[in-house]
TrEMBL record:
Organism: Owenia fusiformis (Polychaete worm)
Lineage of origin: Eukaryota, Metazoa, Spiralia, Lophotrochozoa, Annelida
Protein name (record): Uncharacterized protein
SUPFAM superfamilies hit by this protein: PR-1-like
SMART domains: SCP
GO CC terms in record: extracellular region
Gene3D superfamilies hit by this protein: CAP
Alphabetical list of InterPro entries matching this protein: CAP_dom (IPR014044), CAP_sf (IPR035940)
């Protein structure tokens, strides 16, 4: 799945997270798979999106990879508008498998597989996905409903230059909070923010841009702005300085550098 996440089109993605395996999601997926289901479980076990399919026995790596690629190919058939996160034919649900697998905000996956041949059914594979959205309503609102571009599944650009983790660590062209053990030394995991800290300097140990006091953002490319009238602001008041008039009081460096 991670390899497919780097192949989205148009691409490459600049903020795609590396999917990590979740034992919790695996347990919940298996609980549903053993029922030999014909429908989704309705979030009974965990608040996570879900893909599922039947597969014939005996199993093989090729069959499993083919099913995962089938979900990914939904952007081709029935067609997918990556920018607005809607199927081109207007039926967004028909591309739902693709959104689960290839949203930049998906961070974890766990799958369960069960042989349902005793019930004269094929085997059932269930995969559950965890995202950075607050809840299901937030997920539906931001991924499926908005037609103005704010619901994009990912951003296009150089890999790992718009990561949501507040740094630019890049492993196999995917964003990671920290490089997996040994991969920094081997060169597999690199900092993608080298020469990209516009109004700041790069800390090579953290792969973070340390912005000057007038700029914010992952790459220090956004001017820090005031929120309201700051003509008579008392910059000795920490609340006013940091939350109302950070630019006027030179407090931009107090703000989180992530998106």
């Amino acid at each position: 799945m991670n390899r497919l996440r780097t192949l989205v089109e148009p691409g490459p993605p600049s903020n795609m997270n590396l999917l990590k395996w979740s034992d919790t999601l695996e347990i919940c997926a298996m609980k549903h798979a053993v029922t030999c289901p014909t429908a989704h479980d309705g979030f009974k076990c965990v608040m996570a999106s879900e893909n599922m399919f039947g597969i014939s026995w005996p199993l093989s790596k090729e069959k499993l990879e083919s099913k995962a690629r089938g979900w990914w190919n939904e952007m081709i058939k029935p067609g997918y508008d990556w920018y607005n996160a809607n199927a081109v034919n207007g039926k967004w649900a028909s591309a739902g498998h693709y959104t689960n697998q290839d949203s930049a905000r998906t961070t974890e996956v766990g799958c369960g597989l069960f042989d349902c041949s005793s019930q004269q059914k094929g085997s059932q594979l269930v995969c559950k996905y965890r995202t950075t959205f607050k809840d299901l309503g937030d997920y539906v609102e931001k991924v499926y409903r908005l037609p103005n571009g704010t619901s994009r599944l990912y951003e296009v650009g150089e890999p790992c230059t718009n990561c949501r983790y507040g740094n630019g660590w890049c492993y196999k062209d995917l964003c990671v909070k920290q490089c997996p053990q040994g991969t920094k030394e081997s060169g597999e995991c690199k900092c993608a923010l080298v020469d990209r800290c516009n109004k700041g300097t790069l800390n090579p140990d953290t792969c973070q841009c340390e912005c000057d006091r007038k700029h914010v953002g992952l790459k220090c490319d956004r001017s820090c702005t005031n929120f309201g009238n700051c003509k008579n602001v008392d910059c000795n008041d920490p609340v006013a300085a940091k939350t109302k008039c950070p630019a006027a009081c030179g407090q931009c460096d107090c703000f989180d550098k992530g998106e």
